[in-house]
Amino acid sequence: MSKGDTFENDWLKLIFNATAIANIADNAAASPLTQLFVSLHTADPGESGNQTTSEIAYTGYARVAVNRNSGGWTVTADSVSPAAAITFGQMTAGSPAGPVTHFGVGTATSGTGKLLYSGTVTPNITVANGVTPQLTTATAITEA
Fold first, then answer.
1. Distances, alpha carbon 81 to alpha carbons 30, 57, 86, in Å
2. pLDDT band at 55 (very low <50, low <70, confident <90, very high)
3. Which terminus of the chain faces fewer neighbouring Cβ atoms within 10 Å, N or C?
4. How many Cβ atoms are within 10 Å of 102's Cβ, its own excluded?
């Protein structure tokens, strides 16, 4: 079963821009999330994973907060992308378990957190001392 194209766009705007879907859903919780947290992964965290599943680890790495609004995310044509490049901390020490192959978007700044979406990073990012990983505005999540 699939969603209608208009609803796919509305759904992405609800999650990433905190924009209400008229007569269906709103963002009027007592303390709604104002940011989502982007993580880097060395393998696909999968649908049963969380924000720590295959998450990269190196000295200097931390998840990056991105505002839940149109200044943080661009939603168009059933797809969402960062409105600006997402830059992670530079690796200053450590030995990551592999290249960055996936990214995740979740609800927690650290720890398990709820993984909302994940996607592939193309091309993969090889992380080594002195490297500052970055996701560009071409990074996308598409509703299907």
1. 27, 24, 10
2. very high
3. N
4. 22
**100: containing domain:** 32-67+80-142
What is the rounded distance in angstroms from the CA atom of residue 127 to the CA atom of residue 86?
15
| Listed residue (122, 123, 104, 124) closest to 114, CA to CA | 104
- What pLDDT does residue 19 have? 92
The model's pLDDT over 109-136, given as tens digits with 9 standing for 90+, comes to 999 999 999 999 999 999 999 999 999 9
Asked if residue 91 is part of any domain, the answer here is: yes
Give the other-Cβ count within 10 Å of 79's Cβ.
Answer: 14
| pLDDT value, residue 31 | 83
What is the DSSP secondary-structure string of 72-125? Answer: TEEEETTEEEESS-EEPPPP-B---SS-EEEEEEES-SSSS--EEEEEEEEEEE
Question: 13: helix, coil or strand?
Answer: helix
With a cut of 80, say whether residue 28 has pLDDT above it. no
Residue 131 lies in a domain: yes
The answer to whether residue 120 is domain-embedded is yes
pTM above 0.70, yes or no: yes
